[in-house]
Amino acid sequence: MLSRFMKGAAGFFALTVFASVMVTVLDAVFPQVIRYTVDTLINGQEPTKAVGFFASLFGGADFLRNNLWMIALIVVITALLTSFFRYLTRVANARGSETMAENMRNTLFSHIQKLPFSWHTKNQTGDIIQRCTSDVDTFRNFISEQLVDMFRIVFLIVFSLFMMFSMNVTLALIALGFVPVILFYNNYFRHRIRDKFTEVDEQEGLLSAMAQENLTGVRVVRAFGREKFEKDKFNKQNEKYTGLWVQLGNILGWFWGIGDLISCLQVMLILCIGTVFAVRGSITPGELIAFISYNGMLVWPVRRLGRIISEMSKAHVSIDRLRYIMDSEEETDRPDAAEPDMTGDIVFENVSFSYKPEKQVLKNVSFEVKAGTTLGILGATGSGKSTLILLLDRLYTLAPDCGRITIGGVDIADIKASWLRKNVGVVLQEPFLFSRSIGENIAVTDAYADEERVELAASVACISQDVAEMTHGYETVVGERGVTLSGGQKQRVAIARTLMLDTPIVVFDDSLSAVDTDTDRRIRKALRENTENKTVILISHRIVSLMEADKILVLDKGRVAQLGTHEELVAADGIYKRIYEAQSAITEEGRA
Ligand SMILES: Nc1ncnc2c1ncn2[C@@H]1O[C@H](COP(=O)(O)OP(=O)(O)OP(=O)(O)O)[C@@H](O)[C@H]1O
Ligand SMILES: [Mg+2]
User: Which of 407, 351, 420, 370 is nearest to 565 (CA)?
Assistant: First the structure.
């Protein structure tokens, strides 16, 4: 997973590491120049071999003593180079981490697109969004601010220890003695920080999901006067979230405070003992100054290492949350999946299905829709009508031994999902419209569709009249979730969208529920004329919408209760007759 994220970014990170190590090397030169100036040039002592060698490159001690400006020049050049490499570090780091974050977002997005429908119904949108934004940011910050620095820090620690040991072993051992203490306390805090951060992150996901759901369901909230209830609920969760951050801040406060205390103690000890040594003459003043500088170089990175460790705990949590998404399996076709002819009969054979193990939604459902005919499905709410359609479109898959669904004799499990959906046009029960123009919504599967086709689909769906009355016609942008359209208009745009696909199989899942009976009749007439050779499945609660179908299936609590033509079913005693009589009575009452 990480290698996919790093594509194109690794080179920039390598450059960042190189430039930051160069900054460190140049930083380390300063104390040596000062030490040489104080001890050799001013006090006339012999320099170490390495320093002496470098000094000879610039003309030797005598020359430098008479040309002190050379020392100043070396200092200036070092400072300039340091600035340059610092700049390079920043630029390369920004390029690297932004490229990585871009990769992460793209990879996540395309992966999420391919995850099965059932995954989406299980996971909350707000939480997924939070993972793709906040968690990506946390990980990016860790890589860009911490990980790259780690190389520099390890280098610094090794380098400063080496320099200190080469100057005074006793003092160096005292300085080193503090490192295990620091590492131990870092480790102790690391777990606590990680646990707390997991809580914070999960709470943030919950909060995003809540906000997202509220914004989407704004109409329900308003209509039911639930503002205060929702606000209180949100405030409560928000307070919890804030509390968690405060607790995290508290842990971090202790962490940093104790860290400061330990490093101050270390510096103080080195300073005291070092001064005693210098008074006794076992260390020169120049050496002591250099030693203290290097000790500073040691203390800072060891503390920095602590910070990296605490940030690592956070990044670990974030990457686990991203891994949850990345490790979810994409919807795949069987290796030998085919693209067969889809104009054949649709057959459900002993189909049983449950969303959750404890509740069976469909029980041994068997029926057949002959190619080119229309099947009406009637049934109480919750009887499993929509579930049948989701299964036919393979948005949910059948478990083994739970029957099979075939089209033209081919099991749909052996058909490529993309092919299946290209051939089975479904108008879902709850149509979703994109925040685009009506024209774009109708032609959503074919951006290059010509206007005539869009208009034809719209007229069959009986929406063209409504569109003509709008100021911007097909260019009218419908709001988020089609807020600006009426329920019936939305349904008809969704019907037009499905008709655009021109599929051999068309399914209408209660798609006329929100239109008046007259419009219902007009649409059915237009549909009949335009779907002559198609296999049609029509789900409805209204018998008038179904009665002209070639066959009607009555579903009752997930079982096939009745199957036959309108005439047969009206003649037989059963659910259909009862509903028919009840609905005609209402119509009669209306007329009377
Ligand atoms: N994603 C899901 N997870 C769990 N249970 C579900 C899910 N979707 C539907 N159900 C349950 O499955 C049963 C059948 O639902 P389905 O949507 O198929 O009914 P329906 O016949 O289409 O009803 P309606 O006429 O109201 O549209 C219901 O009891 C419902 O609660
Ligand atoms: Mg339904």
Answer: 370
Nearest-5° Cα angle at 516, 514 to 517: 120
DSSP type of residue 359: B
> Nearest Cα to 325, choosing from 516, 165, 148, 123?
123
pLDDT at 481 over 60: no
* Calpha distance 456→357 (Å, rounded): 45
Mean pLDDT of all residues in 480-505: 82
- 249 and 148 in a common domain: yes
Distance CA 176, CA 171 (A): 9
Q: Are 135 and 318 in contact (CB under 8 A)?
A: yes
Q: Measured at the alpha carbon of residue 195, what is the angle toward residues 189 and 197, in degrees to the nearest 5?
A: 95
pLDDT in tens, 335-366: 888 888 888 899 999 999 999 888 899 999 99
- Tens of pLDDT, residues 75-106: 899 889 999 999 999 999 999 999 999 999 99
Same domain, 71 and 145: yes
Q: Which residues contact 183 (CB under 8 A, 6 or more apart)?
A: 302, 305
Q: Which of 118, 123, 351, 381 to mutate to test the pocket of ligand 1 (most atoms within 8 A of CB)?
A: 381
Element (H, E) at 407: strand 404-407
Query: For residue 32, what are the domain limits?
Result: 2-327
Q: Please report whether residue 305 resides in a domain.
A: yes
Question: Would the pLDDT of 480 be above 70?
Answer: no
Q: Please determine, for residue 22, whether its predicted confidence score (pLDDT) is greater than 80.
A: yes
Residue 182 Cα distances to 58, 263, 293, angstroms: 41, 8, 19
pLDDT for 217: 82
User: Counting atoms of ligand 1 from 1, which one is nearest the CA of 121?
Assistant: 1
317 and 361 within one domain: no
Between the CA of 429 and the centroid of ligand 2 the distance, in Å, is 6
Mean of per-residue pLDDT scores for the chain: 86
- Residues having CB closer than 6 A to ligand 1 are 121, 355-356, 361, 379, 381-387, 429, 510
Residue 462 lies in a domain: no
